Amino acid sequence: MSTTALRDAKRLPRRSWRPAAVLAAVVVAFSLGGCGYNDFQRLDEQVKAGWSEVLNQYQRRSDLVPNLVATVKGEASFEQDTLTKVVEARARATGIQATPELVNNPEAFAKFQAAQGELTGALSRLMVVSENYPSLKANQAFQDLRVQLEGTENRITVARNRYIKTVQEYNVLARSFPTNLTAMVFSYPVKPSFTVQNEATISAPPSVSFDKPAPPAAPASR
Fold first, then answer.
1. Does 176 fall in a domain?
2. Number of structural domains, the chain?
């Protein structure tokens, strides 16, 4: 047998496998598409992007707190307990390392959520208490910071709502059959989201009373 014939003979088995390999690749591609693999890829990236935006807005709010506290400190009679709670709440919120992996850790996510909710409540109380100080309300620097804070709170709400919607879509895919099998095979766990209870808590305005005790009655004249 000539050299050319031998070379052609060696190529035959390899050529015979090519159609089978191509067919197998097509089957795998259709299988992955049909079982939701591509949807998991898309939604997982959307969740990460949504979470990043939530963090950006929380960071924006955190950056406003030092200037806000410094401005309020100028009001000599302002209650220090309120300021202390804001500072402590910010410290706890910023003390949690908010990495992208946090969205896959329900326990860590819950702690982050609670810390941010506490800061929301502390800032809300600060705004309510400030209403009792006319000179502070007239302070332009304070009013500018207040407007920035209100705008940031609105952006936080929008970012959180978008994140919640994306996580909901992702979790439905992760729990539904047969895409739940894909989730198990490729390690796409259900992701935590902001809870309804937390939403209700941070949305409720704080109850603050400015009632002052009545002055003691003057002694009766004899």
1. yes
2. 1
pLDDT tens string 112-144 = 999 999 999 999 999 999 999 998 888 999 999
Indicate if the pLDDT at residue 11 is higher than 60: no
Q: Could you tell me the pTM of the whole model? A: 0.73
- Burial (CB count <10 Å: 0-12, 13-18, 19+), residue 128: middle
Residue 72 has pLDDT above 50, yes or no: yes
The CATH number linked to 136 is 1.20.1440.20
* Residue 17 resides in a domain: no
Q: Taken in order 117, 120, 126, 127, is the CA torsion positive or negative?
A: negative
Q: Who's near 191: CB < 8 A, 6+ residues apart? A: 47, 103, 104, 167, 170, 171, 174
Give yes or no for a contact between 197 and 182, defined as CB atoms under 8 angstroms apart: no
* pLDDT for res 66: 95
Task: Please report whether residue 158 resides in a domain.
Answer: yes
Q: Is residue 166 within 8 Å of residue 46, measured between CB atoms? A: yes
Comparing C-alpha atoms, which of 57, 181, 46 is closest to residue 119? 57
Range of the domain at 122: 36-203
